[in-house]
Amino acid sequence: MGSKDVKLLNFWVSPFGKRVEWALKLKGVEYEYIEEDICNKSNLLLELNPVHKKVPVLVHGNKAIAESFVILEYIDETWKQYPLMPHDPYERAHARFWATSAQQKLGKEGSWTALVKSGEEKEKALNTASEVLDKLEEEIKGKKFFGGDNIGYLDIALGWISYIIPIWEEVGSIQIIDRLKLPAINEWMTNFLNHPVVKDSLPPRDKALDYYHLSVKKHTPN
Amino acid sequence: MGEVKLIGTHQSFPCARIEWGLKIKGVEYEYLKEDLSNKSDLLIQSNPVHKKVPVLIHRGKPIAESLVILEYIDETWKDNNGHCLLPQDPYERALARFWARFIDEKCVISVWGACVAQEGEEKEKAVEGAIETLSHLEKQIKGKKFFGGEKIGYLDIVAGWLSYWLSVLEELGEIELVNAERFPCLHEWGKNFINTSPIKDCIPPREDVIAYFSFGINYVRSMAANKA
């Protein structure tokens, strides 16, 4: 499956698109990367994802797939080398549950809300994030990765935590992950960031900081 | 295949999804009725992250979130009744999962929004938004008996609330979203779906659904009134 066959429409800092990059790289699938300016969306994007008009979009031959978690499972089912999902149905359900729950509770309702709100709302959001992190600490205890010895679907799904949250913490001058209180998560973050597929894939930190400073300003009520 | 329990409430359509999935696969289960105004220790222990129904417990292990549970059911009782919920082809599966997320993340929210919005410009806009999300589903069902093809599948189960719960929301919200003129294919699909076994065997009485939604609508409206 050569690079002409597989294309990825993405935005350089998008954590959703990064997941797809990691999955393709782990499987050794060659692909063409197409950078999308999300402030000036291309006709190609609007054609390929007319429903949401968002990145990432994976194009495989004449098929277009949107939504990062949907794309991850498509990649896993299409290219069988280096399986990402666990084999056992209960473990699969567990991984799917945590992928979406962490995004919703730790991401949107937790960290992002803590970043853009103040006062009571900020406190509540930080508590929401903390509750999820406590549970993830239990999940990762005793394991190098959520997938075991190797990176799997859930590591990819949660990978944003390892590089986006530290950026948000700096942008908002807040602490979301207490590294002393959550040693297992802290270690997982280090292991994940050092993985060869992840290490050189991250967006430039300074550029990402600038991006999120601007983004938070836009979303913060005056 | 081990003991199966479902923690849920009959009025909740995410819980109905699980009953439909289990019944289609011919899996026997025990229904543990939950009082959402007084959540049980079992529910809180089984779903500490969201504390919500439905939760499936199989061989003592809990699984939460209806879309996750449906895939678990499909994978665990793979060959039951020769009825697969998800398609076999990876691209078809991706489409089904995409539309399922769309239904839960966009349709449900926009329909609810249109229902609770008070009269005026806000309501008009909300109704327009809901109609727009539903128009995508009309396109998807065109030319097919069910989203799953000839047989009910995963996406039919996820969209199933449109065939019954929606009409209650329309009544309470004094709106009309899906009718035979605007969305003929979706309307037809709804009638087929709700009249098929085992779907029609798990429908709660309409008064119960009215009471269930009324409570939520009044709560949202009173919060909005307090803020104004």
TrEMBL record, chain B:
Location of this chain's protein in the cell: Cytoplasm, Cytosol
Catalysed reactions listed for this entry: RX + glutathione = an S-substituted glutathione + a halide anion + H(+)
Keyword Transmembrane: no
A single GO molecular function term of this UniProt record: glutathione transferase activity
GO-annotated cellular components: cytosol
Major localization class: cytoplasm
Any Gene Ontology biological process: glutathione metabolic process
Swiss-Prot/TrEMBL keywords: Cytoplasm, Transferase
Keyword Transferase: yes
Gene3D superfamilies, sorted: 1.20.1050.10, Glutaredoxin (3.40.30.10)
Domain (GST C-terminal): residue spans on this chain: 89-213
Annotated GST N-terminal domain residues: 2-81
EC number: 2.5.1.18
Pfam family, any one: GST_N
Source domain of life: Eukaryota
PANTHER family found in the cross-reference section: GLUTATHIONE S-TRANSFERASE, GLUTATHIONE S-TRANSFERASE, GST, SUPERFAMILY, GST DOMAIN CONTAINING
Similarity comment: family membership: Belongs to the GST superfamily.
Function statement: Is involved in the conjugation of reduced glutathione to a wide number of exogenous and endogenous hydrophobic electrophiles.
Protein name: Glutathione S-transferase
Naturally occurring in which organism (per UniProt): Arachis hypogaea
Lineage, opening ranks: Eukaryota, Viridiplantae, Streptophyta, Embryophyta, Tracheophyta
